[in-house]
Design a protein that fits this description.
The structure is a single chain. The chain is mainly alpha-helical. Helices cover 67% and strands 0% of the residues. It is built from five helices and no strands. The longest helix has 44 residues. It starts with a helix and ends in a 21-residue tail after the last helix.
Length: 135
């Protein structure tokens, strides 16, 4: 690790401590990655890419020390619930479509079985027979 990364890590750890102590100096004090990045004076993507372990450490400490669920986790949990509901609805619609298709296939089979032999009767003028007539 180079000196710049070590300096960033030191600033991030100090920022974590300040945020959790409720003593922010250069952010709004919220317990988010955006506030942590502002407090540490690093770009947010540095937390996402180079220092992801510190971001996870921050969230773990937020949970442990404040007994709060981080906002990002709350949003993700809501999204999971929404997606599960959408999946349930999609599966129900698929089951309904399958049921309708089965009903239509059965109805078609019944109609075909109830008809007298199609070769004995001429087809109406607006119907094109699928089977060639027995010429």
């Amino acid at each position: 690790m180079n000196e710049q990364h070590l300096d960033e890590r030191t600033r991030i750890r100090a920022a974590i401590d300040r945020l959790l102590a409720g003593q922010p100096t250069s952010s709004n004090g919220s317990l988010t990655v955006v506030a942590l990045a502002a407090e540490a004076g690093v770009h947010r993507m540095a937390l996402q890419k180079r220092h992801a372990d510190l971001k996870e450490e921050f969230y773990a400490r937020v949970r442990a020390e404040t007994h709060q669920t981080p906002e990002v986790e709350k949003r993700l949990r809501k999204e999971v619930v929404r997606l599960k509901e959408a999946l349930k609805d999609s599966r129900a619609a698929e089951a309904e479509s399958r049921h309708r298709a089965e009903q239509m296939a059965l109805a078609a089979a019944v109609l075909l079985l109830r008809q007298p032999d199609a070769q004995d009767q001429p087809a109406p003028g607006n119907v094109i027979p699928l089977r060639p007539s027995g010429d």
